[in-house]
User: Fold this.
Amino acid sequence: MTTTTDSHTEAKGGVESLRVLLVDDNASVLRFLASAFSSNQCRVTTAATAEQALEQLGDDPFDLVVSDIKMPGLSGLDLLRAVKGKQPGTPVVLITGVPSVNSAVFGLRHGAYDYLPKPFSVTEVRDLIRRLRRDRADGNGNVNYPAGLTEELARRQTGVEVISRIGEIALQGLEPSVFVEKVLEQTMQSLRCDGAVMLLRDQAGQFNASRKGEPTLVNQILTLLQGSFGDVVKTGGQETVTLTKREHNFEALAALVPGVGDAMGILCMGRGGENGAFLPDEKALLLGYAQTMAVALQKILLRENLEKNLIDTISSFVIALESKDPYLKGHSARVSLYSGELATVMGVPPAEVVLMSRAGMLHDLGKLAIMDNILRKPRQLTEEEFELIRTHPVVGDKILKPLRFLSCEAKAVRHHHERYDGKGYPDGLKGDDIPLIARVVTVADAFDAMTSDRPYRSKRPLPTAMEEILRGAGTQFDPTAADAFSTIPLARLEQISHHFDLRSVPAAGAAIHPSVEGR
Assistant:
């Protein structure tokens, strides 16, 4: 139902009477709005739906339309487009709850005058009406946006975009440190800051600081944070803390990033004096960024825990497979260690060293699908049995395929039997077409096979095995990887070679057949 409340055409004291259309499907909210606007010398028309409001848009335009965004049927955004289509000069204010902030910002981009976040007060309505009257007076009847308001609206829009972007970054499967670095970059741009610090404390109580921006300013922020650490924690993430005083030539702001248990963080932003102090809405944005980071980091922590548990479970299957044969026990664990050492001396970034170590642990995963009586057959394998053995890289790749966070490791699982000269399997890749992670694991796998006891031969001395690796450079092995492996100290290789070193000799026929080893 649509209702209209008329008051004087000219309000008391010569204040202009505004013709206002109010739209909300919540009857109590609509009554409150009608009362608040009427008490501020407005002629009010109300509608419970956007469809009813459209019927009121006649030839005589309203001075203001105020509409809820979320309503049954047409939404407030639909009404905004309709009003701008029929009466482009009519200002529209959108009413929004927290979940609809994105929609409100969308409305601002498409011509909305402003938005009222729920819950709002009579004072906020009065301020809105005063601003509208002032804009109309300044613009000879047209609505003008003051420069300060336009800037604030732009900050709001950017703020919501950054919050959305933080959520998107959290879904990229990044390591926490990389996630924090990307978020610092986004927050610095949004708040026009010259330096930023993110202090993170993990579950073990260890602190790590991520820094971005002008080094001198960043160091000053860290020094100030030490003295105000307790004050920031006491806020519980409900307000920001200004770290600087009047005598400083810059301003620094800190907000708590609430965590889980003992884990927590503090997000700090610094701005040089030439860029001015942080405004109230910018402080609110920093709080929003910190709270969004908290949720994102908790999700990342949960994801990491789940991934770690899953990797541990898969690794336990590999260990169980190898434990059936004392000669192979510890093979994958040693390949993992060798791979990590090789990746390190090759100068691979630490995060990728972790991936290559993990790939070494999982490289023979596909053998889980091959029956023990074939793996451990004491006699010569048939051609069919040998071809079945050669499928284990592909089988292992298929096992890991659904686990997208192990996509890099899956490349090593599939290609660790490729040869640098292209004569390997399963895909016959050649040279640098073989993923680096697979080239690293190939060297580690071959070295452990040569330096481990087998029922049909004794293990080779480490220097002899190293000579074989170098001899195979350019044919079986990546030359760069082979050369780098030769730089690992023999003492370290010796230490790794004793991992799960068993001296007992099993009964005849208990070990994997030599034609299966290294296949």
Observations:
- DSSP finds 19 helices and eleven strands in the chain.
- The CA atoms of residues 188 and 196 lie 7 Å apart.
